[in-house]
Design brief:
Length: about 180
Amino acid sequence: MISLSDLELLNLIQDPKSKEKGYRLLIELYQKRVYGIARKMVIDHEDADDITQITFIKAFKNFQNFNGNSSIFTWLYRIATNESLNFLQKRKRRFFFSIEDHEEVLKKQIDTSPLLDGDEIERKLQKALLTLPEKQRLVFNLRFYEDLSYDEISKITDTSVGGLKASYHHAVKKLENELKDK
């Protein structure tokens, strides 16, 4: 994998001669991670793929608005997490799912998708994650799977570090209880 600093990547993207190369590198550097967070939130491969594409399209369209107050990684993750949460809200409204029905649909996708990696324990954890409120699930995924610091998650979610620690703690307790019952 190519290692570039944010400044180098920004310079490539802002230079009309190297803009296309800069965007290709941006995708190469972050596509798998953006897809991973979307996939953990929406479960379905095609939906996560769509969210990943939307994330990069929004990034390309709005790169002039990137102010450098955070890393490019944080900025992309913020777009991806917002798109994931928006997608889940739209899906619930569009299909008039109750929260329980929505969880059942996603749990069936976990069981039947040949594209989901992991053994039975991982599938149980993924199903248990679906019982969490979406924001708690997001915080858990970013902290546990992506191994991000609370400061990084705070920048992505625009939430206080204290609030994130509480969300993560509650998520872990709920998951422990959910998995204990299985």
